[in-house]
Every structure is written in C-alpha cells, then in structure tokens.
Design brief:
Layout (H helix, E strand, L loop, with lengths): L4 E2 H6 L1 H9 L4 E5 L2 E6 L48 H11 L4 E2 L5 E2 L6
Parallel strand pairs: 1-2
Antiparallel strand pairs: 2-3, 4-5
Length: 117
C-alpha cells in the first residue's frame, strides 16, 4: 500500500485510482494527514443463505418448558450453588454427552471416555 492520497487527489484521479484498486491495491484517502477512508476491491456477496441448513444440529428436550421441581435451590445461605433439578430428558441427554468425554461425574471423579468413538 502506497502513501495515502488526499481527498483532492482522489477526486481528480478517481478513474486511475479505481484501476489500481481493480488490480488488488488498497488506496487510503486522507483529509490532511488523517486517513479517513479506504478504497478496496468490491467483493461480490455470497449466494443468499438457505434457511434450515442447521436442521438436526439443535436439540431441545420435550420437557424443556415443564415446571421445575421444588428441589431447585440455586442460592443457599452462603450464596453457593447447591443443587439444580434438571428436567428428565435433559438429564438423560447430559449423561449421554458426558459419556463421550473425559469429564467429572457428579462425585467429581474423572472417568475416561468409552473407546471406539
């Protein structure tokens, strides 16, 4: 990238600057000594996105909006997280996902992932 061109130079030589940009050069336009704009080659936008491309990648439990049990108590006397009651379908899903990785179980023990995955 060459030295910035002034606004006056850009107005006077726009066609020449555009030819340089078409060759891949980026042109900085300055007002005085302060850069204020950049001429860059226009890149055509990608094709319009198709809706539904992530279908099947998002999972939501059937009971995601069920009422939580009375056992849910997030903040105790010492503002510690004590217990979270998970909807059953979500609890099953989390257990299945944990089985894929080396993660601590409820007791804090780390167990290796099952081989073959």
């Amino acid at each position: 990238m060459d030295a910035p061109v002034t606004v006056h130079e850009a107005k006077t030589n726009l066609s020449k600057l555009l030819a340089r940009v078409e060759q891949g050069e980026e042109i900085v336009i300055a007002r005085g000594s302060k850069p204020v704009a950049k001429l860059v080659r226009f890149q055509q936008a990608n094709a319009p996105r198709k809706l539904g491309g992530d279908e099947g990648l998002v999972w939501m439990a059937d009971d995601f909006d069920d009422e939580l049990s009375d056992e849910l108590d997030l903040l105790g006397d010492d503002d510690e997280i004590l217990e979270v009651a998970w909807p059953p379908a979500l609890a099953r899903h989390v257990a299945e996902e944990r089985a894929k990785y080396d993660v601590p179980d409820e007791s804090g023990a780390v167990r290796p992932a099952e081989s073959g995955e």
